[in-house]
Specification:
Layout lengths: L5 E4 L2 E5 L10 E4 L2 H9 L6 H18 L5 H16 L6 H17 L4 H31 L7 E4 L14 H10 L5 E5 L6 H12 L3 E5 L4 H6 L5 E4 L3 E3 L4 E4 L2 H11 L3 E4 L5 E2 L16 H4 E2 L2 E2 L12 E4 L6 E4 L2 E3 L4 H8 L1
Parallel strand pairs: 4-5, 4-7, 5-6, 7-10, 8-11, 10-15
Antiparallel strand pairs: 1-2, 2-3, 8-9, 9-14, 12-13, 15-16
Helix pairs in contact: 1-2, 2-3, 2-4, 2-5, 3-4, 4-5, 5-6
Bound molecules: 5-S-methyl-1-O-phosphono-5-thio-D-ribulose.
């Protein structure tokens, strides 16, 4: 992990502003919920697990800033902030998972007093962060078993240290393979419109001294046709019970290409990215973002100001295009019933 992406420091959330990377490494200290909401919305903090951790810390900020004297008032204010934080981004289920986990702590402990509940909320948020670190390492170890010496791997968006509190999900597998001296090569999709691949993944891989090559998103097919890609590893924002997976826009097209060219296509994600309440990918809410993200590149206009724009931030890859899903509890193949039984615990 090249950077301490998100953490709790001196009573504040400290995070790296990812919108400024790779040009500038700037840490932000945040002590209030509206600022944290904005950080998630603007993708200063991004990537499903990192958004979950931010949500958990957001609840701690809400509790610590509360002036409520009664338990009822405290809980009412907290729930209002939880609802507000939940409105920042709709697709990554880790946010809702973490907010629910925090609300449960408040609900079950408030009878012991507001002060005690505040301490327990911080303890829980730190546990969310610690668990994520542990899970990243476990996913990396499982995933690295699938990587052969000398493999060339394609990845999309950023599922690395910047998207988690540690090693990353898909990138964790690549970092671990590198640590095991598997001599892998990595192709990185730039990932339009917000360039998480070129700005963040390329930065992380170079930081680790790995063999990385940047491509535009529309070059992946040509590489696969030439037989230059052995495997694809991507992260996930929400996985339905049947295995359908929402991830950064462009993931689905890679999966279709992978099927055609017989390239194994792997999803790497922790249990907190599974949404067991929904059956298929049709039910996953897909965020649509502002038109300016497509009409511009890094603030520079590349299209007429009045051109209509379609800007979904994610797409859904049907489970039948996924070779396996790697979680902290093992590698699962379709049908995903066994995975669900294990994840339901
Ligand atoms: O819009 P973003 O940058 O938050 O989208 C992130 C992704 O799609 C990642 O691939 C996903 O969250 C997995 S992160 C380990």
């Amino acid at each position: 992990m090249p950077v301490d992406t998100i953490n709790w420091k001196s009573g504040k959330v400290r995070f790296i502003d990812q919108t400024l990377l790779p040009g500038r490494v700037k840490f932000v200290s945040c002590d209030n919920v509206p600022r944290l909401w904005r950080a998630i919305k603007r993708l200063e903090i991004r990537g499903a697990p990192a958004i979950g951790i931010a949500g958990a810390f957001g609840v701690v900020l809400s509790a610590n800033n509360s002036r409520a004297k009664s338990a009822e008032r405290f809980l009412r204010d907290l729930r209002k902030d939880i609802k507000y934080l939940a409105s920042s981004r709709p697709t990554a289920v880790n946010l809702f998972w973490a907010l629910e986990r925090m609300e449960k702590i408040a609900n079950t402990n408030l009878h012991n007093g507001i002060g005690k509940t505040k301490n327990l909320l911080l303890k829980e948020a730190l546990a969310v962060l610690r668990d994520d670190r542990k899970h990243c390492r476990a996913m990396a170890r499982y995933g690295a078993r699938l990587v052969r010496h000398g493999d060339t791997i394609l990845t999309h968006c950023n599922a690395g240290g910047l998207a988690t509190a540690d090693y990353g999900t898909a990138l964790g597998v690549l970092f671990e393979s590198n640590r095991l001296n598997k001599h892998i090569k990595v192709y990185v999709d730039e990932t339009r419109p917000l360039l998480q691949g070129s700005r963040l993944t390329a930065w992380e891989l170079l930081h680790e001294g790995m063999d990385a090559t940047l491509i535009c998103d529309n070059m992946a097919a040509s590489l696969m046709a030439k037989g230059k890609i052995d495997k694809i590893f991507v992260g996930a924002d929400r996985i339905a019970s049947n295995g359908d997976t929402a991830n950064k826009i462009g993931t689905y097209s890679l999966a279709v290409l992978a099927k055609y060219h017989k390239v194994p296509f792997y999803v790497v994600a922790p249990a907190s990215t599974f949404d067991l309440n929904i059956k298929t990918g049709r039910d996953i809410p897909i965020e649509e973002r502002d038109a300016s993200e497509v009409r511009t590149v890094m603030g520079r206009e590349i299209a007429p100001r009045n051109i209509k724009v379609y800007n979904p931030a994610f797409d859904v890859t049907p489970e039948k295009l996924i070779t396996a899903i790697i979680t902290e509890r093992g590698i699962f193949k379709r049908p995903y019933r066994k995975a669900l039984e294990i994840l339901r615990g």
